[in-house]
Amino acid sequence: MLVSVLKVIQTQITSELTGFGQFEYNLDASKPEGENQEKTRLTFAGLKYNELGSFDYGRNYGVAYDAAAYTDMLVEWGGDSWASADNFMNGRTNGVATYRNSDFFGLVDGLDFAIQYQGKNSNRSTKKQNGDGYALSVDYNINGFGIVGAYSKSDRTNDQVADGNGSNAELWSLVSAKYDANNVYAAVMYGETRNMTPGSIDTGVADQEGNTIMRDQLINETQNFEAVVQYQFDFGLRPSLGYVYSKGKDIKGVPGHRYVDADRVNYIEVGTWYYFNKNMNVYTAYKFNMLDKDDAAITGAAADDQFAVGIVYQF
Q1: Which residues are CB-contacts of 297 (< 8 A; sequence separation ≥ 6)?
Q2: Rg of the chain over all Cα atoms, to the nearest angstrom
Q3: Which pTM was predicted?
């Protein structure tokens, strides 16, 4: 059982200036005593000054995730074509200074933008490292329709540059759009990454037990697409249909190939929630994995279907 603890603090400093902070962590209650399974998800603090916007610093969502958030709405899976935690500014991450502005200084309703800077993090595994970088996002919402674009660019660390793919990591989210009205939620997202998305590559070498040895790397290029549609019935049922796809291009290090293209993620999720009230719901989902076994062997991704069921109580 996974327990999430969320604490949001807000204090009015003056009539125009507000201080805020957020702390969130997960605890795996299925583990025995003595096995520390706590995980800090978010911890940041900042200030907001009316129409001038807000500034915060800490462990927070990367601004690039603004584009992924539209489609990261599936019941159990989803949002994993390119977004992930501790991967540059593509998800929850450390050491980010974030400026956000809503309604463009109070002049344009629904037009929001964000600017973010991330400092270097190199004292971790290579695929979770990052150099100095920045990210931008622009989001416009009107009458239930929304569209967002995001871009990020970061230096890569010395360990990452050793793969020969260059000194920079970049992301473009070219299209991310949604419709959220009349009990309907529908969204699509397309984005590309360069030297950024983590993956595991088949080395063609086996260990003493005959298991294939996989090598971590940041994939040279990925092309990613996600889509989701949901409907909220008045009696509490919310069915969901989602699709997630990611293709890795010019992957290095595969035996017998200089470069190779391979699908990384390719699945359909069918699922539903049932809300008893605002505090409690149950959910179930099935993942139809359409990943080719040859591609799965190259990238080390799972190719099996999966099933999930759960219950959520929000205090």
Answers
A1: 202
A2: 21
A3: 0.90
Q: Which amino acid is at 219?
A: I
**Amino acid at residue number 89:** M
* Residue bearing tokens 């076994």: 293
* Helix, strand, or coil (residue 106): helix
- Which domains are present in the chain? 1-52 (no CATH), 62-313 (2.40.160.10)
| Other Cβ atoms within 10 Å of 21 Cβ, number | 16
CA 275 – CA 167 distance, rounded (Å): 48
Residue, of 37 and 281, whose pLDDT is higher: 281
pLDDT tens for each residue of 92-117: 999 999 999 999 999 999 999 999 99
- CA 49, chain centre distance (Å): 28
Residue 54, SS3?
Answer: strand
Other C-beta atoms lying within 10 Å of the C-beta of residue 213? 12
Joined tokens for residue 95: 């050491």
The pLDDT, as a whole number, for residue 163 is 78
